[in-house]
């Protein structure tokens, strides 16, 4: 692969807003969303905060204001990474310009979230240590959601709860004691790398931009931010040439591509879970790389040949199974309801 001149393309916003309860995360997200999509743009909200977003909906017959907005909402009672992906896909298919994930923390620590996935996989494997089995399932599930957030075709604003973060340090008497480091988002500690803008709200409803790729927002401290923040971000993201259409993404997928890609991912997860349960000796430990390689190959297949016929991915899955379970065939890969 040869180096090429870098070309700036138009992009969609990826914004994270963290803060304590009642700090204004949802209100700020709605204002920012309106600025991103303009006065006529459609806003979708995935509300896992017990209907709190709808408290900011306009009343019948009223126009939008700085405290009341027109938007559509869903309120799921299950918060697995796959359920978040489904919500984003529905927003893409529905023609919305932005989706607010309020909050993304439930995808980590809520019902069906990554921590529950890890605990369940660890229990199924009959282990007390989650690092050898539970995270082999939980990490790919989390990465799958983060990858979809970055690849989707609309703006994404995610709110996150915060918790007090501690570290163990040695004091002047040589004793190891817990020390408060400050507030940290209730999410994986690397999540901040997935977003163009990271904002922190305080109790006075002031927004502190803690990290951004947008020069106009760098180090900004904004009291009760308005839709102007979204407008600034939209102007910056709108510079450059049009981005190429995604290969396989939600409603924009061609033919059966989206269906097949989702089925492939489901089957990959089944096999990874089986490997973790069986504690197979010599099984590859780099689950993320294996998943990425398989999906990259499959998507390349789609690009070259178009939507494949049923079962066309089976040789690829079989090869993955052999790589996981060894050439001696000691473990038989069970039949799956997922067909390709």
How would you summarize the topology of this molecule?
Elements: E1 14-18, H1 25-37, E2 43-47, E3 72-74, H2 81-93, E4 98-102, H3 106-109, H4 114-124, H5 134-151, E5 155-160, E6 162-170, E7 176-185, E8 197-201, E9 206-212, E10 221-223, H6 228-237, H7 257-278, H8 287-305, H9 314-325
Parallel strand pairs: 1-5, 1-8, 2-3, 2-4, 4-5
Antiparallel strand pairs: 6-7, 8-9, 9-10
Helix pairs in contact: 1-6, 2-5, 4-5, 5-7, 7-8, 7-9
List keywords for this structure.
Rossmann fold; 17% strand; 340 residues; two-stranded antiparallel ribbon; globular; alpha/beta; 9 helices; disordered C terminus; 8-stranded mixed sheet; 2 domains
Number of spatially distinct domains: 2
Gyration radius, in Å: 22 Å
How much beta, percentage-wise? 15-25%
Q: Could you give a short account of the major beta sheet?
A: 8 strands, mixed
Can you walk through the features of this model?
The structure is a single chain. The chain is an alpha/beta fold and 340 residues long. The protein folds into two domains: 14-237, 3-Layer(aba) Sandwich (Rossmann fold); 250-325. It is 36% helix and 17% strand. The chain contains nine helices and ten strands. The chain has helices spanning 25-37, 81-93, 106-109, 114-124, 134-151, 228-237, 257-278, 287-305, 314-325, and strands at 14-18, 43-47, 72-74, 98-102, 155-160, 162-170, 176-185, 197-201, 206-212, 221-223. Strands 3-2-4-5-1-8-9-10 form an eight-stranded mixed beta sheet, with helices on both faces. Strands 6-7 form a two-stranded antiparallel ribbon. α1 (25-37) packs across α6 and α2 (81-93) packs parallel to α5. The longest helix is centred in the C-terminal third of the chain and has 22 residues, at 257-278. The protein starts with 13 loop residues before the first strand and ends in a 15-residue tail after the last helix.
């Amino acid at each position: 692969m040869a180096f090429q001149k870098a070309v700036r393309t138009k992009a969609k916003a990826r914004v994270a807003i963290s803060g304590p309860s009642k700090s204004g995360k949802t209100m700020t997200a709605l204002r920012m969303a309106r600025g991103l999509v303009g006065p006529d743009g459609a806003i979708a909200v995935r509300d896992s905060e017990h209907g709190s977003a709808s408290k900011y909906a306009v009343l019948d017959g009223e126009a939008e204001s700085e405290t009341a907005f027109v938007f559509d909402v869903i309120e799921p009672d299950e918060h697995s990474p796959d359920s978040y992906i489904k919500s984003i896909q529905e927003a893409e298919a529905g023609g919305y310009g932005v989706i607010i994930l309020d909050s993304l923390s439930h995808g980590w620590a809520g019902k069906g979230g990554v921590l529950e996935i890890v605990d369940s996989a660890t229990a199924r494997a009959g282990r007390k240590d989650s690092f050898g089995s539970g995270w082999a399932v939980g990490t790919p599930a989390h990465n799958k959601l983060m990858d979809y957030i970055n690849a989707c075709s609309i703006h994404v604003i995610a709110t996150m709860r915060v918790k007090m973060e501690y570290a163990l340090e040695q004091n002047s008497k040589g004793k190891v004691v817990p020390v408060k480091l400050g507030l940290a988002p209730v999410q994986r500690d690397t999540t901040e790398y997935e977003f163009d803008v990271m904002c922190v709200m305080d109790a006075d409803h002031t927004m502190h931009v803690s990290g951004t790729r947008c020069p106009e927002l760098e180090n900004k401290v904004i009291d009760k931010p308005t839709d102007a923040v979204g407008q600034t971000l939209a102007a910056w993201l709108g510079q450059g040439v049009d981005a190429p259409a995604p290969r396989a993404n939600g409603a924009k997928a061609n033919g059966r591509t989206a269906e097949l890609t989702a089925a492939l991912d489901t089957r990959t997860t089944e096999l990874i879970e089986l490997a973790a349960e069986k504690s197979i000796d010599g099984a590859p430990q780099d689950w993320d790389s294996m998943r990425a390689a398989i999906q990259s190959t499959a998507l390349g297949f789609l690009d070259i040949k178009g939507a494949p016929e049923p079962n066309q991915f089976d040789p690829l899955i079989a090869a993955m199974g052999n790589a996981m379970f060894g050439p001696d065939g000691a473990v038989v890969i069970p039949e799956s309801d997922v067909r390709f």
